[in-house]
TrEMBL record, chain A:
Keyword match Methyltransferase: no
Name of this protein: K+/H+ antiporter subunit F
Transmembrane segments: 6-22, 34-54, 60-83
GO molecular function list: sodium:proton antiporter activity
GO cellular component terms given for this protein: plasma membrane
Source lineage: Bacteria, Pseudomonadati, Pseudomonadota, Gammaproteobacteria, Oceanospirillales
From TrEMBL, chain B:
Transmembrane spans: 7-24, 30-51
A GO cellular-component term linked to this record: plasma membrane
Species whose genome carries this gene: Salinicola socius
A family per Pfam: MNHE
GO molecular function: monoatomic cation transmembrane transporter activity
Keywords, alphabetical: Cell membrane, Membrane, Transmembrane, Transmembrane helix
Protein name listed in UniProt: Na+/H+ antiporter subunit E
TrEMBL record, chain C:
Regions of compositional bias (Basic and acidic residues) in chain numbering: 111-120
TM region positions: 6-31, 43-61, 67-89
PANTHER family reported in the protein's UniProt record: ANTIPORTER SUBUNIT MNHG2-RELATED
Ranges for region Disordered: 96-130
Record-given protein name: Na+/H+ antiporter subunit G
Pfam families: PhaG_MnhG_YufB
Amino acid sequence: MIDMALWIALALFCAAILLNFYRAVVGPSLPDRILAVDTMYMNSIALIVLFGIWVNNKDYFEAALLIAMLGFVSTIAICKYLLRGDIIE
Amino acid sequence: MIPPTRWLPMPVLSLLLLVVWLMLQQSVALGQWILGGLLAILIPMICRPFWERQPTIKRPLKLVGYVFRVLGDIVTANLQVSKLILDPRGRMRPAFVEYPLTLKGNFPITILASTITMTPGTVSAHLRLDGRTLLIHALDVGDINALIDDIHQRYERPLLEIFES
Amino acid sequence: MLETIIEGVIAFMLIAGGAFAFIGSLGLTHLKDFYMRLHGPSKTTTLGVGCTLIGSLIYFSREDGPIIQELLITIFAFITAPVSAHMLAKSALHHKLKPDPRTRGNPVELESEKPKHAVEEAPQGDSPLP
């Protein structure tokens, strides 16, 4: 049962990342692209966790934690740059 | 809450750091307690100049109730937004709403803005520089005044009681 | 029996997480303007990833005791998602992105003003940056 669910969830997350990629390429404005990349890293966290379940190894969580932290900080930094033209005031 | 002392300028942050350290290490051995305790004392001492004054939580029990209410609302919010996105006719009524704030402190306003973003159909977009109005974008709203009233009753009133009563 | 129920819960969490994340990305792709697109990822994707993490937490907790590390990522995601949504909305307002014509309300931040740049540092092409 879990195998089946794992495959469905993997397929859904991959489709989600493809949609994000579409928006990141097409996106008419800069905030659109940032939003798409932001969503993409959120989805990739889930993808890594699912991979961890697949190979039955719980250490993959640390990679997920690192992606979560770096992704958040970089989103905020790019937004800051768009707002002020400067990251550290 | 816990009063700050010379060695622990921010007791709540220290406690949080210790708990997160123990959760990350996944053990409660004596060594981890000592190392975590050391970090919990050192980190707040080093980064105290960056921080604002710590807010005082007057009613911790109400805060727990608030957290559970928000968790429940997040689930309903997601079902609503999913329904709106999947609706093939795409009948949405987006609107910018200006929400008048009665909260004063920076920290309570931050919590209110985050709550608004996570709950049904609204994203907080901009806090005006005067700190009096919050600009909200709503995905599907019929009556704007009802939305403002709802946010006030449901989220701002409890936060006022928790932080500023 | 209990094993079956727990497996069912894990499977449900994984599929629900995937479905929520997919719907969020669908919203990101096909809604009309930026402010509406912001709703999908900020709420739905966060809950989707949270559901997946909780499913994985239950999965690994079955064998050797509770594993609470993954709760940390969930809490972190739920705290940071509103903050980045707020920052994105702020930068979109700063760039004066046009909202959908059906949008009611006309915030001051979106009203056009005279260009502040001097001629020699005027924005090039469509780029908002000088």
